[in-house]
Specification:
- The complex is a heterodimer of chains A (about 350) and B (about 425).
- Chain A is mainly alpha-helical and about 350 residues long.
- In chain A, about 70% of the residues lie in helices and about 0% in strands.
- Chain A has 15 helices and four strands.
- Chain A has helices at about 15, 25-45, 45-70, 80-95, 105-120, 130-150, 180-205, 205-215, 220-225, 230-255, 260-265, 265-280, 285-310, 315-335, 340-355; strands spanning about 165, 170, 175, 260.
- In chain A, the strands form two sheets. Chain A has a two-stranded antiparallel sheet with strand order 1-4. In chain A, strands 2-3 form a two-stranded antiparallel sheet.
- In chain A, helix 5 packs across helix 10 (about 230-255).
- Chain B has about 425 residues and is an alpha/beta fold.
- Chain B has two domains: about 1-145 and about 285-380, Response regulator (Rossmann fold, 3-Layer(aba) Sandwich), CATH 3.40.50; about 145-280 and about 380-410, Rossmann fold.
- Helices cover about 45% and strands about 15% of the residues of chain B.
- Chain B contains 15 helices and 16 strands.
- In chain B, the strands form five sheets. In chain B, strands 7, 8, 9, 10, 11, 14, 15 and 16 form an eight-stranded mixed beta sheet that branches.
- Classes of the chains: A mainly alpha (about 350), B alpha/beta (about 425).
- At the A-B interface, helix 3, strand 4, helix 11, helix 13 and helix 14 of A face helix 1, strand 4, helix 3, helix 4 and helix 6 of B.
Chain lengths: ~350, ~425
């Protein structure tokens, strides 16, 4: 009744092939984007920026990246944290080396550098698969973090080994550094995530995406029907690392402002992103956002409810939060192993029939 | 859509959460941690910090007649959570003491922009001692480099002043915190002629077999440790396993709490650590704490930590903050303070031994005299040693000064690098 596609006729191929062919979906997305771009920036404050929206956007970008590799192309990666570190350190080196460079290009360039590194570490995927590939990417995680700890050039020989983002601007407005206004950092991240989410959506529906999906389903069969696994796998690694590198650059430059490799980009971050992708839904763009929202926003929400509203002790709340999140993850995986995106898909199916199910 | 529902729920929760403190309350937010691998250490410090303010509220009715609030936010020693905590508590906050070098680095630019002071006592960015560059960051009475220098002085005393060719190993937490002393120790090695080897331990430090295998092979004359949390107890246990002479194993003040040595039992006897304040509960203030806080059932945590090394440090930190707040009230002749006024109070803080005596802490810490240019304080340190039978720390040296001739140029160099990177102009200090 509320959600139906009947009567929504398409008379040309362009309409039929657009990103969101169902009218209601399309409107919902436009309204959401209009709200995010034109309403939120006027009401945002430091807390919402630094604790809720920017982390959500940054981790969504990372989840998008990993979803391309793991969800669409089927290559399990545990190196996300390491690749984010590559993005962050490239961002830092670029910021320091070219002080006049627009931060937008800094982030894009950091992503490109990460893509190159990703291709290098993706090479083993041509020979090994599954768990063995996961272990190979795990090695990249440890190697990259070790490298950023070990080689002082990466952190400009600072005594503590920490990198700190200097103030960099876009159109004269500070985006990184302490005096960046919250609406600016938020809009910066939102713009990047929107552009690249649309790009991912279209990439995964097109020729390259189909190649990835066929590799995911059965790589030998894919090879037989003429899909070159070298190209497909390495392009997945490249695109995925590009996204993850950008998210690392945003995490360091825009969100945290300073970072050290072991803490900000450790193995737990690789798992965090993997959990986002699994809980959100493998092979789904929406799932990447839902997974990131689940693992980034729910803890903040729970903390605010328990400590802020109920006034419980902070340590008790922190322990309960861990318990609840764990329980919720198990609950969702038992109830819906295909992730939150699948729940949404099923809701849509039900809504189509409502109120007259078969 | 789901995201919208999330948003709605979040709005509701945040509106509930951001209850603005009532005017005339002094807010000292606590970015503490009682969970995770650093929880046992963080909890003791937080208890001491909270209990001292509770004592002031109960006994004196706050500071200068204004009640004290200590909203607590759990960071789990995690920098991202630290930022979240900072943003959620900064409304009306007077001073931040995050007890984490990583979070400190994160907050240095933010507090400066928001005009809130930060006090990183014995941790954080060492070069923040240069008040000309770091206007809002204070690290009196001592910093990491002072600690490293005092340790080397102690070793030098033990070796009758000759360190030539001695092998000294640094076991450190592989993070900004653990790396801080390396430059200083290297400079001191040039000056004294010892050989320094660096042994990093990755977070959280539960697994150190390979490091101690290396130490067993190297057979250093002394081991210095910059560890925190579970890493400390594991290292001390491993040291007893390779039968290292505990009196030649010296930790920084963050590796010198009861939690760190107790798990190793009797074998930890003789382990040393540097400290910048007194040990034990043999000071008059503890009677007051027992009377007004513990026995009144108002203690933070389970109230069992009175007199432990980290509890004392938390209490000391709170005391310094309270004194600075009182000073700020005097300067600006107002009861309610803003962060900016608190900063002025910290920058002109003077505590002499008479004041320490009046506070019930005679001889607990050095005289403090903060100035616009020097945010670092005197930099005194003493060595404490663990007595495993009595389960007690005791001071075995006097408070001695660190090697300023090495540290001051390093501070100038590092703060100049920071100023250059962030295009900060040095303040004019008259």
């Amino acid at each position: 009744m509320f959600y139906r596609e009947s009567g929504d006729f398409k008379t040309n191929y362009a309409d039929d092939q657009q990103s969101f062919p169902i009218k209601l979906d399309r409107y919902a997305v436009w309204i959401l984007l209009a709200f995010a771009f034109f309403v939120v920036p006027f009401f945002i404050n430091d807390y919402w920026e630094k604790s809720v929206l920017v982390p959500f956007l940054v981790w969504s970008m990372a989840a998008l990246g990993l979803n391309i590799l793991t969800g669409y192309c089927g290559q399990v990666s545990l190196g996300t944290g390491g690749f984010m570190a590559v993005g962050a350190y490239s961002c830092y080196k670029l910021m320091v080396a070219f002080p006049g460079l627009n931060i937008f290009f800094v982030v894009i360039l950091a992503g490109l550098i990460t893509a190159v590194v990703g291709i290098a570490f993706g090479l083993p995927s041509l020979r090994i698969k599954g768990f063995y590939l996961a272990v190979a990417t795990l090695a990249s995680q440890f190697f990259l973090i070790w490298m950023f700890n070990k080689i002082p050039w990466f952190y400009n020989y600072s005594s503590s080994g920490m990198i700190t983002a200097p103030e960099r601007t876009m159109f004269g407005i500070a985006i990184s550094g302490p005096s960046a206004p919250s609406w600016a950092t938020y809009l910066f991240c939102l713009t990047l995530v929107t552009i690249f989410a649309f790009m991912a959506r279209n990439l995964t529906r097109g020729r390259i995406g189909r190649a990835w999906k066929s590799i995911h389903d059965m790589d030998i069969a894919a090879e037989i029907i003429g899909i070159p696994p070298l190209q497909a796998k390495l392009s997945a690694f490249a695109v995925s690392s590009f996204y993850i590198g950008m998210s690392g650059a945003m995490l360091f430059g825009v969100y945290l402002g300073s970072a050290e490799p072991g803490e900000a980009f450790g193995i737990d971050k690789s798992f965090l992103v993997l959990f986002m992708v699994i809980i959100g839904g493998l092979g789904s763009i929406l799932g990447s956002f839902l997974g990131a929202a689940f693992l980034i926003l729910v803890p903040v929400l729970m903390k605010n409810i328990m400590v802020g509203a109920f006034g419980w002790p902070a340590d008790l709340a922190a322990h309960l939060e861990l318990l609840f999140i764990g329980a919720l993850i198990m609950f969702f995986l038992v109830v819906e192993p295909h992730g939150l995106a699948q729940l949404w898909r099923m809701t849509k199916e039900k809504l189509r029939l409502w109120p007259f199910p078969h | 859509m789901k995201i919208k529902q999330f948003g709605a729920a979040l709005v509701a929760a945040t509106i509930l959460a951001t209850s603005v403190p009532v005017a005339a309350d002094l807010t000292f937010p606590m970015l503490s941690y009682r969970t995770g691998p650093y929880g046992p250490n963080g909890a003791e410090f937080a208890d001491g910090y909270a209990d001292y303010f509770t004592l002031l509220n109960e006994r004196d009715g706050g500071i200068g007649g204004a009640k004290i609030l200590t909203p607590e936010c759990e960071t789990a020693y995690n920098t991202a959570k630290g930022v979240e905590c900072y943003e959620s508590t900064k409304e009306g906050a007077l001073v931040y003491q995050p007890l984490s070098t990583g979070i400190t680095y994160q907050l240095i630019p933010k507090v400066t922009a928001d005009d809130i002071p930060m006090h990183t006592m014995g941790y954080g960015r060492t070069s923040a001692a240069n008040g000309k560059v770091f206007s809002h960051v204070f690290n009196y009475p001592a910093n990491y480099w002072d600690g490293a220098s005092v340790i080397i002085k102690h070793i030098s005393d033990e070796e009758k002043g000759d360190l030539k060719g001695k092998k000294i190993s640094l076991v450190y937490h592989n993070s900004a915190y653990g790396k801080e002393p390396i430059r200083t120790l290297e400079e001191l090695a040039k000056k004294h002629g010892y050989v320094l080897t660096l042994i990093p331990v990755d977070h959280p430090g539960q697994e150190q077999k390979s490091q101690w295998l290396q130490l067993r092979r190297d057979r250093p004359d002394y081991i210095i440790m910059y560890g925190w949390g579970v890493m400390n107890q594991v290292a001390i246990k491993e040291a007893t396993n390779i039968r290292f002479d505990m009196s030649k194993f010296i930790g920084i003040w963050w590796s010198g709490s009861e939690n760190d040595v107790l798990p190793a039992g009797d074998k930890a006897n003789g382990y040393k650590a540097v400290t910048f304040h007194g040990v034990g509960d043999n000071y008059p203030i503890f009677d007051e704490l027992k009377k007004f806080v513990k026995d009144a059932g108002k203690a933070a945590g389970d109230g069992s930590n009175l007199g432990t090394a980290l509890y004392n440090r938390g209490m000391y930190a709170a005391m310094l903050a309270a004194e600075a707040a009182a000073n700020a009230q005097k300067i600006h002749s107002t009861k309610d303070l803003t962060g900016a006024q608190m900063r002025d109070g910290m920058e002109s803080l003077k505590i002499d031994q008479d004041r320490m005596k009046a506070l019930g802490l005679e001889g607990f810490g050095p005289e403090i005299n903060v100035t616009c240019a020097n945010h670092g304080g005197p930099g005194l340190g003493a060595i404490q040693q663990w007595d495993a039978k009595a389960k007690k720390w005791s001071l075995i040296t006097d408070f001695v000064e660190s090697d300023r001739s090495v540290i001051d140029p390093l501070i100038a160099e590092d703060s100049a690098a920071y100023a250059k990177e962030n295009s900060i102009k040095e303040r004019d200090c008259k």
